[in-house]
Design a protein that fits this description.
Elements (H helix, E strand, L loop, with lengths): L3 H10 L6 E3 L2 H6 L1 H10 L4 E4 L9 H20 L3 E5 L14 H9 L4 E5 H6 L4 H7 L6 E4 L1 E5 L2 E4 L8 H10 L4 E4 L12 E5 L3 H11 L3 E7 L7 H12 L5 E8 L6 H17 L3 E5 L8 H21 L3 E5 L9
Parallel strand pairs: 1-2, 2-3, 3-4, 4-5, 5-8, 9-10, 10-11, 11-12, 12-13
Antiparallel strand pairs: 6-7
Helix pairs in contact: 4-5, 7-8, 9-10, 10-11, 11-12
Length: 333
């Protein structure tokens, strides 16, 4: 592996954190201190056992793994880290007592070992992911939010597009004191997730050619607070000329403004809804807005009024509306 301190510097430079790592059980069990020291230098807070060999896949094997995991978990704790176990579907196979392999492992290890539940595999095993989160409340610091279209055979898909009850699971995760939800896309065929970027509306004609050349596949064109008199019809034509046959898609047209306080902002968003299809965009994005200097509850009725109208107009054109949160530095300047 590259020097972990060098990798940590790379992460720091771009504002990223190493939250967790999947580390082979062989390394954790046979080179415990050396392995954990390396991940500690990365700033890693959680270490997960990603899978296990066949000889552990029985009640006796899981009891053995639990006993071996306890000293590794203690070594993690000494370094400010937490040891977790990441499941697949086979851990839900039942033994002669009707217990799953996962429950045997976690019951035997008790609080020493946490669970990094992979909710897609929980579904694939025919179990209820919400009940599993509740079952291990306080021990599920991390969850893999992975979705499936079908469970027999297992076919993965982007989160929110399949069988995973995302909202219910987010509520359950909050109650279970989960710290991080990790969105995972596993073995998708055909490709369903593309690499995209955002471009300021007033820079799109000069920046877009460079992003296409760099290999980006989708584009969001965003304006901040005002369209500045931009003719979106003409801009859409120019964007299509630049894209040509590259296959790049404009997915979103964004105007981040305050539509509940300023009628002109709402009208500008309606103009975006009219023009979004010209770009090929399926979504118009914006801020929720606010009454400047007033508490949020006072703005809720107006928010409902404005966005009921905007979302109806969006639906009439088969468009989505997306709302981004932003503190705006405490002001709308």
């Amino acid at each position: 592996m590259t020097d972990p301190e060098e990798v940590k510097k790379w992460l720091d430079d771009i504002g990223l954190e190493c939250i967790s790592a999947h580390v082979p059980w062989k390394d954790l069990s046979e080179k415990t201190g050396e392995t954990l020291d390396m991940y500690q230098k990365l700033g890693c807070r959680y270490v997960a056992i990603p899978s296990i060999k066949e000889d552990y896949r029985s009640r006796e094997g899981m009891e053995k793994l639990a006993s071996q995991a306890v000293p590794v978990a203690e070594a993690c704790r000494e370094r400010g880290m937490t040891l977790l176990y990441h499941n697949h579907a086979f851990e839900y196979e039942k033994d002669e007592n009707g217990d799953s392999l996962l429950s045997t492992l976690l019951q035997t290890a008790r609080e020493e070992l946490g669970a990094q539940l992979d909710l897609g595999w929980v579904l694939a095993a025919g179990e209820d992911p919400e009940e599993e989160i509740k079952k291990y409340e306080g021990r599920v610091s991390l969850l893999h939010m992975k979705d499936v279209e079908t469970t027999d055979p297992v076919h993965f898909c982007p989160v929110g597009k399949g069988l995973l009850p995302v909202r219910a699971l987010m509520r359950a995760a909050y109650q279970a004191e989960t710290k991080w939800l990790i969105v995972e896309q596993d073995n998708e065929e055909p490709k369903q997730i593309k690499i995209g970027t955002c471009i300021p509306g007033d820079k799109v004609e000069t920046w877009l050619p460079h992003f296409i050349k760099a290999g980006f596949e989708t584009i969001s064109i965003n304006f901040h607070m005002t369209l500045n008199g931009t003719d979106l019809v003409k801009l859409s034509q120019r964007v299509k000329e630049i894209i040509g046959d590259s296959g790049v898609e404009v997915t979103t047209l964004g105007l981040y403004c305050n539509p509940i306080q300023r009628e002109s902002d709402k009208e500008a968003l309606e103009y975006c809804l009219e023009c979004a299809p010209l770009f090929g965009a399926s979504t118009v994005s914006t801020f929720a807005g606010a009454y400047e200097g007033k508490p949020v509850p006072e703005a809720i009725p107006k928010f409902g009024e404005v966005f009921r109208d905007l979302t109806k107009k969006a639906a009439d054109k088969n468009l989505n509306m997306a709302i981004e949160n932003c503190t705006m530095g405490g002001t709308w300047d």
